[in-house]
Amino acid sequence: MTSISSAVDLINRSLSDICATDDHHYAWENPRRFLCYAKRLDVVLNKLLGQSAPGNLSPPVQTAVKGISGDLKKAEDALSVYRIRSKIFVLINCLSLCASLQECTLGIGGWLALLDSEVHDVADLRKKVADLSRDMKQAQFKVTENEKRVQLMLQKEGLGRPTSKAVQSAIIMDLARALGIDSNNHIELSEQVKLLKEDIARSNSVSERRILTSLEKIMDSWSLEPDVLTQNFDFDFEDDAQISPFKSFICPLTKEVMKHPVVLESSQNYERTAIEYWFERCIEDGRDPTCPVTGQVLKSLELKPNIGLAGAIEEWINRNVEIQIKLSVQCLTEESPSGDCVERVLDHIYKISEEHPSSRYRVRNAGLVVLVVNLLKDSSKSTGSLLRSKALMVLLSMSKDEESKKVMLGEGITRLVIHSLIGSSEKERESAVKLLLEFSSDEDYCTKLALEKGALVLLSTMAGNLEHPALSNLAEEVLNLMEKVEDNIQHLAAAGRFEPLLCRLCEGPDDVKIQMASLVGRMTLTNSSKEQIARQSSTILVELLSKPEGRSSSLQALFNLSSLDDNLTILVDSAVLPALTDILFENQDLPPELKGLAASIIANVVSKPGHWELASADKKGNSIQSETVVSSFLGLLSVASPQCQVTILRILYGMASSPQASESVACHIRSGDGIKTIIAFLEHPEVEYRIYAFKLTRVLSERFGDDLANELKASNKLPLLKQKLLDSQSADSERSATACILGNVPLSEDDVKTVLGPSFLKWTVSTLKEQGQSSNRRTSMPSLTMVEGLLGLLLHFTRSTDPRIVDLIKEHRLLSIFRDSLVLSSKPSVKQLSTRGLKCLSESGRILIATGESDPPTPHGFCSPLVFMCGRPSPEHSTCPIHNSPCEDDSQFCLLKGDCIKPLVDILSFQDTTVQIAALEALSTLLVDSSDTGFKQAVEELYKLGMVDAVILLFSGARPGELQEKASWMVERVLRVESVTQEHSLNQSLVRALVEALKHGNAVTKSHAQEALTNLKQISGVGGKRESSQTRGRR
Fold it and tell me: How many Å apart are CA 172 and CA 215, to the nearest integer?
């Protein structure tokens, strides 16, 4: 508890500090009033406390003194805020400060009433105490209405509300009035805000910091100079001079020349929209609207137009507009105006057009529109992107005047604007698109714009560029307007914008659909465009095929779309095949052109393996590889138009080349006597016919060589094929197909000698060598096919035992050719043919040895120009362990001497099964006769070369089938040799494979597996029960 002495000391210090300040130091009424009470209190307490020591005071007096000391201290703190802090800070806290002084004054008045008993003997002092107590109890500290409004306004601004310039001006006026400062005294107002910032730096109040931020923004905006319609162009005019606006023309809130001046009941003029904003803010804050300039509370919100002032302002504006137009014309007609001057002119013309639309005709009549367009035509570096963007903005504003728009179009503005679409600045591009958007409201203009070179491409590119969303949206709006014009659909599609075309194609009436389909058929499309159109419209296009009026357009469109491989599945899923076959087979009265288109689409569909192989191809549900459909194509081949015939050959070739459809299609062609029909085209005078006829015949020769050979012989076309192959002037695809045909069809030994002949063998070897020399270069498909055909031709010679042919084989070293092709080529078909050639030569070699006609020594010095390996043969020949007879080194009939064993063993691990089978067949020629005394020696030699282990490994992993059968035969053969049997007697992998073959293989495989297990002595105890005996036997 505070002692009485401390309380007295506190009172003395507080009163001393309070009374030491004069009235004029306080800018507010409330602290000045309290100062008067404090001075009277100082007199009373000095007399009272001066009569006796503090400790001698009665208890009631001591209580009163302590109470007065506490309230006086609180009052002193409040007064210090009034005295030290900024005026705006006091305004913000005026209500709390007023309440604090009110509370302290009432409290002191109450404590003074307790002193009555102490001073009853001193009448004069008693009266002063009673009067002061009464006055302080009745004291009323108030905040003025203006201060309340400003305090409320500041609190609201602390909420961070958006504020217009007009409201900001009114806030400044109210604030200045409350502070006792002229609202035009920007320096003093800024100083007060700065003081507030210093005060709030010591405050932790979030609300006060928000108020400061808001006031700083308002002051920054308020500090801007009035924006009036005057401009300095640095030109001298003797007769004309710009007139500055009168003060009465300027709105106190916007600081701009008024457009719609209104007068309030306070007789103050304002811009209508500005004062309306202020009234709305007052009502929003829950206070009476006031006149911002006078602070008068308005009884009425009536806004009376000031017609006289409006007329004066209009006259002033017209006068200045005329002057500014003359200045602008003078600047732009100079020979080399400065860039700064041109920029100011453009800014001012834009301002005139935007703020005074009624003056646009003056700008146009003065020729400024043409002059601005000429700025865009200037391609010099002085007209940079900034000036072009401002020129475009001027023209955009002036385009709201229809006559000005006509002037621009007459001056070729469209071409200039399109050029600005690729401007260096985003602002220039944006201004250009906005101007196009303004012009595009007219359909005729949209049509002309679509014809401008590059316009649609640039707009489409801009619309798809999401890095600049504003530009993208503007370009999209222009394109949307252009899409409404039917004549633009094709141009839009050509620029990659297919949505309008597809919308009309999918949703429009039939005549529109047909028109759009015709466009698709005529257009040159990118692959992505073809896929987009196919996905969205293929079903519609197929439906149009059933309508006579839409058939032609739809066929053209489908033909265009079918040229993309990725679209083939889409078209097949849209049931295009039944519709097309109906046109080909059922509608006999249709023009040949339409049938040719339908056939071409089918040819495109079947050109690659795909979904078409199992899809329905007619209305009865028959697949395209069915006998019915294939027969229909063959029948049509004889009666169709010439152009349609070649397309049907393409169709048959495509179907016969498909892995899934090839077998059935080839069978149906043969059963339908189609081979005779097709080979008739081999002599067609047109190259395209012959090419597809040869290709189709080649495919048929792979499956039905005998039938084809009979037809070729019956029609005497074998010599034709030879002639075609030898004709270097024929197309490569024809010659390569011919080579394959001759290589695939079976020829008798007489045919080989008479039709082909020795010279043909020499030509074949020479041509094959040329193909080999080009293998280091990129090889085309005809070249690869030619190699296959040439190897097939050589096979015919390998099967002959005629001495003259044998000599030719040796001379031209066919075994070396097949071996090198096997090693160098990676194509399975070439490897297979090479392996078959090695097999045939090996078989022929065994026959020659059996008949005593083994290889004679090659004459010394002989060197064939087509040999693949060089070297002189040894004059003495060692015994061949395979044939158990002398074989010359590099023999053309011995796989061992010809170094062919290792290449054949290597391809046993090749991924293609047909190649593996061919390799096994070639190697099996070395194990034909196991009764021969040299068989054991041959197997042991092959074992050293790794063949035995490779064959066993292949067999161990083979599944039931031809490969397993061939491998089981060889395994059984080699296991007849005891040394091999002992080596693999414990090979559990081999045993398991043999057991699996015995269980699941075909009859031949089972027989071989049983014999092999018997040789391994595992037939009665596969699980290893005879292991000890085997081990002993091996030891």
Answer: 9
Give 751's pLDDT tier (boundaries 50, 70, 90).
Answer: confident
State the Cα–Cα distance between residues 450 and 442, nearest whole angstrom: 13
CA distances from 93 to 82, 150, 196, 623, 852 (A): 10, 11, 12, 93, 132
Check: CB of residue 430 under 8 Å from CB of residue 477: no
Cβ partners under 8 Å of residue 802, min gap 6: 749, 753
- Which candidate, 119, 214, 228, 117, places its Cα nearest to that of 167? 214
Looking at residue 554, its pLDDT comes to 95
For residues 925 and 379, the model is more confident at 925
pLDDT of res. 233:
42
Q: How many CB atoms lie within 10 A of CB 1027?
A: 13
**SS3 per residue for 266-320:** CCCEEEHHHHHHHHHHHHHHCCCCECCCCCCECCCCCCEECHHHHHHHHHHHHHH
The overall average pLDDT reported for the chain is: 85
For 370-384, how does the pLDDT look when each residue is reduced to its tens digit (9 = 90+)? 999 998 888 666 678
Measure the CA–CA gap between 897 and 899, rounded to whole angstroms. 5
Interhelix angle for 145-157 vs 165-179, to 10°? 140
Kindly report the pTM of this predicted structure: 0.67
DSSP 844: H
Using an 8 Å Cβ cutoff, are 665 and 652 in contact? yes
- For residues 760 and 767, give the distance between their C-alpha atoms in angstroms, rounded to a whole number: 10
- 10 Å CB burial of residue 737 (0-12, 13-18, 19+) is buried
Phi then psi for residue 865, to 5 deg, are: -70, -10
The separation between CA 153 and the C-alpha centre of its own chain, rounded to angstroms, equals 52
* pLDDT at res. 570: 94
